[in-house]
Amino acid sequence: MTDTTTKQSQLTCKYKAVAIREDDRTGIGILRYLPETRNGGATLEIHSIYCPDKLSHKQTFLAVMQHINVDDGESALLRTAMMNVKYQWAALYPNVFVKGERYNIGAHSEVLRLAEDALRRKSTIYEEEIN
């Protein structure tokens, strides 16, 4: 079993992230959802992040990673779209498997709306489900 397969088989949480980098600002949408669901399903957290500057690709990735919470002994899958992520950056987070994907309206529309909303609002919001 490869390292990638091992990480995926022991996932405790999944995330999706999309970033919109404009000339003078950046909007980021992040969604955390149950690992049992294939393309979403039960949403656990949403992040709609506004940055008043155009972030570099690396800064954008690091901003996303600040919102990915993985405890010791856990692992997560981060599906990204509309973001460039270098292997070297992702390697700094051994408990997070980063998967770059082409934008897909079915899989990424909700996180895209979160990024767009952040740009429109010019503020950041975070919400989580409380059991």
TrEMBL record:
This is Uncharacterized protein. The lineage of its organism: Bacteria, Bacillati, Bacillota, Bacilli, Bacillales.
